[in-house]
Every structure is written in structure tokens, then in C-alpha cells.
Amino acid sequence: MTAVYRTTSSKHTQNLARRIIRLLPNPGVLCLSGDLGSGKTTFVQGLACALGIADRIISPTFTLLQSYDATHKKFSQLVHCDAYRLTSGDALLVAGLEDFLERAGTLVVIEWPEQVQDILPATAIWLTFSFGKKEHERTINFEVRSKE
After folding, report:
1. Where are the alpha helices (DSSP H) in the chain?
2. Which of 41, 78, 118, 148 has the maximum number of C-beta atoms within 10 A of its C-beta?
3. What CATH number labels 7-144?
4. Where are the domains of the chain?
5. pTM of the model
């Protein structure tokens, strides 16, 4: 399954995240790919808001992963990972990601997933963010891939 979304503001990107939650499996792994500043963390902020998380969401670039308790009926936990500095998934596994990957009620979101493809489940859903023609415009490609 594939779909293409276009957003015109940070708020619009966050609202898209709220709508996409219903398409995600439980447990779920969501891979967010795209250049710096393309809207990945903004999207995670929208997910967190929809999941009832009041904490301030920033990319866990140096801590690698951050877990949040959620109050959503489908997901009770959000695990936000940032693989920007990594060359394989080993560091994320050591940081405890493996404990979350198949836990019911958990949504794992990984920014820069290309760096850690060696540990991603075949069921991971990919969102690829790219800049649009206008300043705040983004194109977001939604794709369910299967490992070959």
C-alpha cells in the first residue's frame, strides 16, 4: 500500500500524524525518512499529541531513544528513536529497543531508519518526507514495504 500526502504547514503535518494513527498496526514500527528539517520530528509531535502525551517532544539524537506513556485507546506507549549518528542497529538494541519492538500497545517511531535497516521488522511502515516547492510545503510518501 502506498499513499502520497502534501502538507502546507507544521500544524498540517501534525494533523496528518493524528489521522495516520488509525492505519498503523499494534504493535507498530514507523520509519521516518527525509532530510534535516523536512518535518520528521514535527510529525512525531503530532503523533504524541494524538496519543495524549503532554511532554515536549524533541529528537533523542544523543540518548538514541525516549519512551513516553500514552493514553490512547490503541497505543499505551510511544518510543521515539533517532538513528542519525548510527551506522547499524546495535546501539539501539543495547539502548533497549528490542524490548519495545513487539510489545502490544507500543508504537515505535524511528527517525533516520536507513542507518538501522538491519534491525527493522518486515512489517515496518515507511514515511518519506521531502520539501515542497513552497517554504513550508512537504510531500510525505506513506509506504508499506516488505523485506526482500
Report:
1. 10-20, 40-50, 90-94, 98-101
2. 78
3. 3.40.50.300
4. 7-144
5. 0.93
